[in-house]
């Protein structure tokens, strides 16, 4: 694991943006039982960590994508960090609603873009990738721009997410991931070593984990 991935995992555990509980699992909005709960918006309350995330996203964007014109934030978690990256790069910023506005122009995409501009999207969390790719499709539908890729803070590493992004022809990168998180959590005493197998089993089959 690289330095950024490990450091971000440490920060997320430190501020409880990610919590692990094998014995008392969380229930996601989807109804899935999960030993992990993630709310990366907690980052915004800690200036040093917020700046680390901004700088890491910016450096990753510069490394992975060339000639980017616009930064787009995915609602809701990607909006604030996306705006920070856009400010750092002095680039235009737009954001994508989770659903079209119910009045007025009924748009999903807020902000101004020019035809042909290249857009990189910023997201806070990748699970299945479905909501992120819905945002990509909204930009493609409502603007004449080129979405060249997406960068997220964290991914659970589900195979379905990899497949969904590949099928949509959207390259994506993340600052940290589930594998690094578990390693850091064990090393720093957030979980016991014997919990590693259970946590890995959840990632392989999250919809059925804890049901039997």
Characterise this structure.
By secondary structure, the protein is of the alpha/beta class. It has one domain (3-204): Rossmann fold (3-Layer(aba) Sandwich), CATH 3.40.50.2020. It is 40% helix and 22% strand. The protein has helices spanning 3-14, 47-64, 77-89, 130-142, 159-167, 178-187, 196-204, and strands at 18-20, 26-27, 33-34, 36-38, 70-74, 93-96, 109-110, 118-126, 146-155, 172-177. The strands form three sheets. It has a six-stranded mixed β-sheet with strand order 7-6-5-8-9-10, with helices on both faces. Strands 1-4 form a two-stranded antiparallel ribbon. It has a two-stranded antiparallel sheet with strand order 2-3. α3 links the parallel β5 and β6. The longest helix is centred in the first third of the chain and has 18 residues, at 47-64. The chain starts with a helix and ends in an 8-residue tail after the last helix.
């Amino acid at each position: 694991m690289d330095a950024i991935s490990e450091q971000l995992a440490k920060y997320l555990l430190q501020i409880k943006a990610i919590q692990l509980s094998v014995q008392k699992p969380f229930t996601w909005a989807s109804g899935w039982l999960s030993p992990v709960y993630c709310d990366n918006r907690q980052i915004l309350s800690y200036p040093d960590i917020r700046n680390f995330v901004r700088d890491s996203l910016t450096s990753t964007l510069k490394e992975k994508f060339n000639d980017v014109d616009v930064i787009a934030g995915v609602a809701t978690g990607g909006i604030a960090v996306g705006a920070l990256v856009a400010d750092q790069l002095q680039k235009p910023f737009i954001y994508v609603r989770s659903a079209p506005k119910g009045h007025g122009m009924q748009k999903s995409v807020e902000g101004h873009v020019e035809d042909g501009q290249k857009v990189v999207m910023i997201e806070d969390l990748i699970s299945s990738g479905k909501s992120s790719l819905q945002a990509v499709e909204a930009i493609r539908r409502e603007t004449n721009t080129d979405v060249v890729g997406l960068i997220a803070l964290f991914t659970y590493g589900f195979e379905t997410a990899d497949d969904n992004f590949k099928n949509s022809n959207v390259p994506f990168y993340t600052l940290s991931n589930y594998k690094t998180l578990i390693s850091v959590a064990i090393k720093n005493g957030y979980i016991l070593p014997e919990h590693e197998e259970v946590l890995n089993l959840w990632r392989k089959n999250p919809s059925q984990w804890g049901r039997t």
